Amino acid sequence: MKPPIKPTNLATPLRIAPQPDQPSLSKAQKMFNTLVKQVESSRDTLAQWQSFMDGYMQKVASDYEPQRLIFQSLQADMVRALDAAWDQARGKKILTKSEQQILQNLICEMAEHLIVETADETIKAIYNKHSEIDFDAEEAAAVDSMKEAVEAMFDVDLANADNLNSPEDIIAQLHAQMEQEHQQRVKEQATHDARRKNTRQTAKQRAQAEKLKAEADETSLSMREVYRKLVSALHPDREPDPVERARKTVLMQRVNRAYEKKDLLQLLELQLAIEQIDTHTIAGLSEHRLKHFNKILQEQLDELKHEIAQLQMPLRAQWDFQPHQPITPKTVMPHLSREVANLKGSIRQIKKDMRMPADLFALKVWIKDYRREAKVRERAMRYEDDFSF
């Protein structure tokens, strides 16, 4: 009876160490060690981000989203209160025409934001009451204008596209058409290249193409050989002992997942863990085999970096991080905490302001203060424009 498979926690890291007969590592061996270390680091980083995102989304759901909905509801109440105050002020002629216009602009500004977020028809009716143009007509005109601009800028035809009712629809359609055109160009280029290859390819070019194909086949074979050795050692159907069969079943699941993801490092680690290989085996790999292993590890590293970037992308957009600015979970969470605090402050302020529309004289003072602050902001913006280079 074979001895049981040992636990898979690694006491020895997967590294190529200098050997008595080879005290200096080759270039391929050094590259192997570097790639293994980078894959391990990226794998840990991805796991940290995945774990962080679970906690982050829980905090969004428990802390941010309830405050956002409260603020949104209070904004809708404020729009209704300002609309009622505008009707009352008109009847009593307390506000000047200029003040009435400022109030209408404020109502439209707040209402527009709410309509986009909630599609509340009652708020839309208030917007239409105070706007010179119907909201839906304005949106349709904006969509048509954006459609024309996109067609002119990117030389595409969106005339026959269906359901383009928002800027988001236009962007999605643009991406879809550009991807379709890209795939068509790739297909045409491949056809063109194939024709050139058949008619004008030199013997040297054919040899190079055959060499690249052979290398790709060998790289794939290298991965399959590692996989087959693990399957041979771990296949649970060949294990009579029920305890070992259960252990091997778990290990085989890990092997299959790693093979499907082309996770060479995980496969080699499993080999090391079950003592199918050791550090001397790794050190004895031929340069030819190491070259293929390094190629697989580089592809794995690129995929890990892509997965990390995909997780970070919505956070970068939400919190205005620069594209190449390094971010970590520790730098992201404070942004969410500050936004929650800002929302709570906005809720306190809007609750305080909610009493104002009922007092028309207080409303008049508030409009004057708003106009004064708007002029200060306008002057500041002009100053920035004048001195920006």
Strand-helix topology:
Elements: H1 27-92, H2 97-118, H3 121-130, H4 135-154, H5 167-200, H6 203-234, H7 242-260, H8 264-273, H9 279-283, H10 287-319, H11 329-353, H12 360-386
Helix pairs in contact: 1-2, 1-10, 1-11, 2-3, 6-7, 6-8, 6-10, 7-8
Secondary structure class reads mainly alpha
- Share in β-strands: under 5%
**Mean pLDDT, rounded to whole units?**
82
- Percent helix: over 70%
Give the topology string: H per helix, E per strand. HHHHHHHHHHHH
Low-confidence stretches: 1-11
* SS summary, helix count: 12
Q: Oligomeric status of the shown chains?
A: single chain
Largest sheet: none
Shape assignment: elongated
The number of strands is 0
CA-based gyration radius: 32 Å
Distance between the termini: 80 Å
Which descriptors apply to this entry?
389 residues; mainly alpha; 12 helices; 78% helix
Description of the structure:
With 389 residues, this protein is mainly α. The chain has a domain at 138-200. Helix content is 78%, strand content 0%. It has 12 helices and no strands. The protein has helices at residues 27-92, 97-118, 121-130, 135-154, 167-200, 203-234, 242-260, 264-273, 279-283, 287-319, 329-353, 360-386. Helix 1 (27-92) packs across helix 2, helix 1 (27-92) packs parallel to helix 11 (329-353) and helix 2 runs antiparallel to helix 3. The longest helix is centred in the first third of the chain and has 66 residues, at 27-92. The N and C termini lie far apart (80 Å).
